[in-house]
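Example complex used in Figure S2.
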Amino acid sequence: MKHRYLPTTDQDRKEMLETIGVDSVQDLFEDIPEAIRFKGELKVEKQLFESELIRYMSKLSSQNANTLENASFLGAGVYDHAIPSVVDHVIRRSEFYTAYTPYQPEISQGELQAIFEFQTMISELTGMEVANSSMYDGPTALAEAGLLSAGQTKKKKIIVSKTVHPEARAVIDTYARGQRLSVVEVDSSNGVTDLDKLKQEIDENTACVMVQYPNFFGQLEPLPDIEKLVHEQKAMFVVSSNPLALGRLTPPGELGADIVVGDCQPFGIPAQFGGPHCGYFAVTKKLMRKVPGRLIGQTTDENGQRGFVLTLQAREQHIRRDKATSNICSNQALNALASSVAMSALGKKGVRKMAEQNIKKAHYAKTRLEEAGVETVFNGVYFNEFVIKVNGPIKELNRKLLTKGIIGGYDLGRDYPELNNHMLVAVTENRTKAEIDMFVEEVGGAK
Amino acid sequence: MSKDQALIFELSEPERISYSLPELDVPDIDLDEWLPEEFNRKTEPELPEVSELQLMRHYTALSKRNHGVDSGFYPLGSCTMKYNPKINEDVARYPGFAFVHPLQEEETVQGALEMMYNLQENLVAVTGMDEVTLQPAAGAHGEWTGLMMIRAYHEANGDFNRTKVIVPDSAHGTNPASATVAGFEAVTVKSNEKGLVDLEDLKRVVNHDTAALMLTNPNTLGLFEEQITEMATIIHDAGGKLYYDGANMNAIMGAARPGDMGFDVVHLNLHKTFTGPHGGGGPGSGPVGVKSDLIPYLPKPVLVKENDAYRFDYDRPQSIGRVKPYYGNFGINVRAYSYIRTMGPEGLKQVSENAVLNANYMMRRLQDAFVLPYEQHCKHEFVISGKKQKKLGVRTLDMAKRLLDFGYHPPTIYFPINVEECMMIEPTETESKETLDEFCDVLLQIAKEAEDNPEIVQEAPHTTVIGRLDETTAARKPILRYQKA
Ligand SMILES: Cc1ncc(COP(=O)(O)O)c(C=O)c1O
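Predicted assembly (932 residues):
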């Protein structure tokens, strides 16, 4: 029986084999030595018809608690935000999603222009001069920022605050090991980087200091103070930022950051069990030619018509091979498009309003929890997350919450032994007052 | 079609929006007061302000200025631009896949974990490896992950002097670049006149400092490395490991497996062979498979199945650690799994057979008009050289641009770098014979134009929304963002 993705008929095959001058398709595989030819049938699961596939995949899907049907207070790097319907309508246009890297600009102006617009939006939000076309995700972007810093300063020590996302720190460790760089983690105090300890660590061998803003606990790091310490020692200042928060918070670019990275997931990208999301990478003009990945530039054609092209490609692996600034090739273009559409849909005012609602709802939830007698820890300024302490294991509390249609927060004990029974609570604009009140009631009752 | 498409910023007018958030339903606070001065943003980011219809028109206009597989033939060699099934797009959007948080308790995501586990098992079967991780985000990321594991393996054996990774001159740029990022030095091995790795040169470069040899098989010329077992022996005897760049897996499914050829580590590009899709440049997914001696070094966490339940194992003391947050590009993995289930074992085999048939057919139809550098049968792709046309003043770039006038995406050009005026053509199995014939007819016509009327080729494209762009100025005076005049 023919397969719907395979158009070649028996007659086609016959004619094609004749042109090639062989008797059978098997003759075309003669160059595979007998000893390593695969015989028999691949142990791949059996074929499903479309109707069967839909049933099976629906069953698997239904076995997962989702954030459409449950009210999620889980963040820790991935957030439940409003996704304008237009986002999916745009990225489902097959001219976008069935294309690849825009190597032929004359027939890829759509993609190129969309990403040029993305670069602009990221520059605007971060307050940086240059942004690239995307990275795999926030944490790998942060790791690449470490590599860039080491290359630029010719120094081998990377300092990372322990208030940076634990999984991002794990990724940085792996990348640093590759390049034989040392990574030093700096403790926190009251939920933000301990400045005294940071000061002690920064020395003339330091390539960069990495902090997160808002940090993993939701707190705002004292960027101006950190910036001074970093630049005094001529190290580079790397900030990982939730781009939505920058709709309301002073951007790291205005606070002296050399590299700003992060993940655009809050803009139009569903959680998808952790990926694909969309890293961004923004730098000062001075570092423009050191950026990893693709950059889109504006230029003109022979008639003076404005157009867009991949540019500064001499940095990239397909030209520079082992001397490239990074090995990244495929990136997250479609998700960069999704984020651009989401930012455009929300617009200048909407992004600000959404960021503000996150702060205000988190503030409401934190206040209500405190009123209900729940202990909150760390008392600094925060964006949309904060930390509470409860009397039993978070896992058990979350199990109970799920029976009420609530996905509870993140169990900080998993990464910070000193924060056992502490929960990181995220409250986005998507949480209604009623949901927050119910969460407070359940958690308050359980404390 | 209008020639210039305004930037979305140029359409912007204050007050317009295309999404309304509900009004705040909790007590308001004054953020100018609540936020300390240093955190209170004063310069507003200049984001566009457009209505919903304006937004849709803008992006629809952009989409019309873009060529995808659904728009027309896209024989971009090495990229496997096959049809992207629509059912995969639907399935990936099911609420239990799209709207699931990666840090939910494991008991609440068993369906997602089952999908991942099954996909891993299927990829083990296709590659002949012993275990697979889904963590890497794309091919290059998988390469680096695999090399980091190879490094960990050597170091665990007390072997700290294996500093070199050998790559063929025909290798993709990510291979040497990944070697560098993983802390190795890349060393090149030459190809011979048949387009295959020169065994003598390989013996010359292999050494006690060899960590690994990276290969694609079939290689980037579309040719099967017939002496792969000999190469494996040379590398293994020297104590090195064999790395398989799976970008070209579409050629050999069900016909041969990297694991049986002697490869120790394999990455796959799920956005290529397994219909990802390509997304205008990504996201992809680059799972890595290993033989049993490398299992301890797999990135963590590792997904395990116990008593019909799935969980992540973090207790992996020899693991290279994390290469990515969470568990990889899950959404792309759902699509790949959906594709594998749609094809089944027989279907996947048929895919490779048809891909190879299509490529050989085109190669034979084109061989007389161009220079065919390697005579033997190809696998899923082939290269031809535009050397003949170059003598007439028509470069491969010109012919590529001329193809645009006929509604085709050109092949990959000037890669691999060891073939002059190279054109690398990969039709894939999802194209019909009619499409292949039409494309070949056009390319033959262009070859004739190069003789009779070279200007029409040299000045192409003639029908696109924009002409050839000034890339030199773009790089010299970079404009990388919109700025209000
Ligand atoms: C032969 C080969 N190897 C590696 C890669 C890199 O894969 P990715 O772009 O997914 O990082 C590619 C794709 O561009 C390729 O064609």
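Chain B touches chain A through 209 residues (CB under 8 Å). Residues A 329-330; B 78, 138-140, 172, 174, 216, 220, 245, 247, 269, 284, 286 surround pyridoxal-5'-phosphate (CB under 6 Å).
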